[in-house]
Design a protein that fits this description.
The complex is a heterodimer. By secondary structure, chain A is an alpha+beta fold. Helices cover about 25% and strands about 35% of the residues of chain A. In chain B, about 75% of the residues lie in helices and about 0% in strands. Chain B is globular. The chains are: A alpha+beta, B mainly alpha. The interface of A and B includes residues 102 and 150 of A.
Chain lengths: ~350, ~280
């Protein structure tokens, strides 16, 4: 297969297992996100792909070629580190030209490539600046330009945007995605931010505890998470414990026809969890809904309104466009309608 | 607190270090400068006067070569110490935290030994009867044990042994603060591990290296026991001659003149090297 294949990779640091049997595939030209909470092993996996760490087990292949034994400096990959790792003793242009200088490129080739890269990341005319004279966003761009200067076979980014403020981060996400699509470079990006993953990725790999839990296009993972961890990590969700009785489902004391729930990956299990996205929860008159509860909090975000409803001892979050909010307040008793056809039945989390 | 009190307390805070500086540095140094112009009285001590003969005596080929020896020995010791300490500190930084602390404690423990103990320890280690020559002979590397002291090599070894912990002390913190991703980034860009090290870590710690060089240089200039214990008379440094004049020849004015000149020349050298370092960065 053309693209990157990680086959059954494990990595142990002493007694601590950072990765256990991770296998992933990334088609060439795609942007894949390794997504997971901190300490889930995503940076370790990226470093193994980069060649900075060796796997304890398993192997990495690029376009069918096994990468084991190829040292990092011969892999011809571009990488942007979390700390950016720009060289403070060199100018912006010298930073970008570093990989060319290493390979003995002529002064002319270097200068023209630097100009080209500065234009690509829209930093024309800043080549002579020192690194400490640049803003956070500009440093970001220099790091990206340096990583791409050699037309790498694979582009690796380790939480490159985490140091930026929220607004600049969103802007850089879009810019990075457009750049990657224009160049068509196979890219792996490590992030703990699910919004970032949804914005950028063709392919998301959700990781936790050193394992790859689920991989696929972001929307597919959003709609069909394989377990409650993934459901909670990708977007927000209400996890409602329920119990199966024949072809009926007992949800907080109310009976529903189980067949109406879209995702039935847990057929055969009695105790399951129903994952309901907030946008699939509607408010209605107290006697009309599947469940009844009292409003505990209303968050008015202008374009969108979020309502928390206490049903039994469970808090259910509903979100709706401001236009379809009836104007109920805290303490009101309301009915809760759930679009079961959009929900998922998941196995109880075994973490 | 009223403003007058505040001014008073700030004067007090400034006064304590100023008083210490005057008591322990300015006064003794002034006395030494004054004594360097006094006249020596044969068979007695010295009496106040203003003569330049002490400085004139220094301007001879003999003391010129002594000065050159002192400076070259100190420069050699500082270069060798830093050349050993730098890679050592870099390897130390790669260890786990606990290991780092343990090794640092061992290295810095050398600082608790006096120059006398270190000198005598090396002179017996390098001797023919009890030294490492016996180990080499036992291992069959040499035919018969021989003495390696006194000599230039023995003296350099002793000076570097003294200077190394100081060099490590200066270099280690700078290297451990360096972002480990920087040499890694160079490797990702195609530099071999050695080239990444020489192209990023070394230039980024240039100021640290020159700081360590200057520190060990100045420190080695002051060594006066090791040249006598491990060196031959031609390796005796100016510090040895100053001691000799002051204590054994009772010629305090001449010793003071040499000390003043020595201090001026060292300060000049350190100043020039710092100026050069600043210009380049």
């Amino acid at each position: 297969m053309s693209g990157l294949v990680v086959r059954n990779v494990s990595k142990a640091f002493g007694a601590f297992e950072a990765l256990t049997g991770v296998s992933i595939e990334i088609s060439s030209g795609h942007l894949a996100c390794l997504l997971g909470p901190s300490g889930c092993g995503k940076t370790t996996l990226l470093r193994i792909v980069a060649g900075l760490d060796e796997p304890s087990n398993g192997a990495v292949y690029l376009d069918g070629q096994k990468l084991s034994g190829v040292p990092a400096h011969r892999r011809e990959f571009g990488m942007v580190f979390q700390s950016l790792a720009l060289f403070p003793h060199l100018s912006v242009a010298e930073n970008i030209a570093y990989p060319l200088a290493i390979r003995g490129a002529s002064r002319k080739t270097r200068a023209s490539r630097v100009r080209e890269m500065l234009e690509l990341v829209r930093l024309q005319g800043l080549g002579k600046r020192r690194i400490h004279q640049l803003s956070g966003g500009q440093r970001q761009r220099v790091a990206i330009a340096r990583g791409l200067a050699l037309k790498p076979r694979l582009f690796l980014l380790d939480e490159p945007l985490s140091a930026l403020d929220a607004k600049l981060r969103e802007h850089m996400q879009v810019e990075l995605r457009q750049l990657q699509q224009r160049l068509g470079i196979t890219t792996i990006l490590v992030t703990h931010d699910q919004r970032e993953a949804m914005t950028l990725a063709d392919h998301v790999i959700v990781m936790d505890n050193g394992k790859a839990l689920q991989s696929g296009p972001p929307l597919e993972i959003y709609r069909h998470p394989v377990n409650s961890f993934v459901a909670e990590f990708i977007g927000r969700t209400n996890l409602i414990p329920c119990r199966r009785r024949g072809d009926r489902l007992i949800v907080l004391g109310s009976e529903v026809h189980a067949g109406s729930v879209a995702d039935q990956t847990t057929v055969g299990q009695q105790e399951t969890v129903l994952s309901v996205r907030p946008e699939h929860v509607r408010l209605c008159a107290a006697d009309k809904g599947v469940l009844t509860g009292a409003i505990t909090f209303v968050r008015d975000l202008g374009s969108e309104i979020e309502v928390s409803i206490a049903v039994g001892d469970i808090e259910i979050l509903s979100s709706m466009p401001a236009s379809s909010f009836g104007g109920s307040g805290v303490g009101d008793r309301v009915g809760v309608a759930i679009e079961f056809s959009q929900c998922n039945l998941l196995s109880r989390d075994q973490r | 607190m009223t403003s007058a009190e505040r001014v008073g307390s700030s004067i007090l805070t400034a006064a304590i270090p100023a008083a210490m500086l005057i008591c322990f540095f300015v006064l003794p140094f002034s006395i030494m400068v004054a004594v360097s112009f006094f006249e020596r009285v044969q068979g007695a001590f010295f009496e106040p006067a203003f003569v330049l003969s002490n400085y004139e005596r220094f301007l001879s080929p003999f003391f010129g070569s002594v000065l050159a020896t002192s400076l070259l020995l100190a420069a050699g010791a500082s270069v060798v110490s830093v050349a050993v300490a730098y890679p050592f500190a870099w390897m130390l930084v790669q260890f786990r935290r606990r290991g780092q602390t343990l090794i640092l404690v061992f290295v810095l423990a050398v600082l608790s030994l006096s120059e006398v103990i270190i000198g005598f320890a090396w002179s017996s280690l390098l001797s023919r009867t009890a030294g490492i020559g016996n180990l080499l002979a036992f291992a069959g590397l040499v035919d018969a044990p021989r003495s390696y002291t006194p000599g230039l090599a023995a003296l350099m070894l002793g000076l570097c042994y003294l200077g190394l912990p100081y060099a490590v002390l200066v270099i280690y913190p700078a290297l451990s603060r360096l972002d480990p991703a920087i040499p890694e980034a160079a490797r990702m860009l195609g530099a071999s591990p050695l080239r990444a090290f020489l192209g990023t870590v070394v230039p980024l710690s240039r100021n640290t290296i020159s700081g360590a060089l200057i520190l060990v240089f100045v420190f080695s200039l002051g060594a006066y026991l090791l040249p006598q214990l491990l060196g031959r008379p031609q390796h005796w440094t100016l510090s040895v001659h100053i001691t000799d004049q002051a204590i054994f020849q009772s010629n305090l004015p001449f010793a003071a003149a040499m000390a003043v000149l020595f201090l001026m020349i060292s300060l000049l050298l350190v100043g020039v090297s710092m100026l050069l370092g600043r210009q380049r960065s």
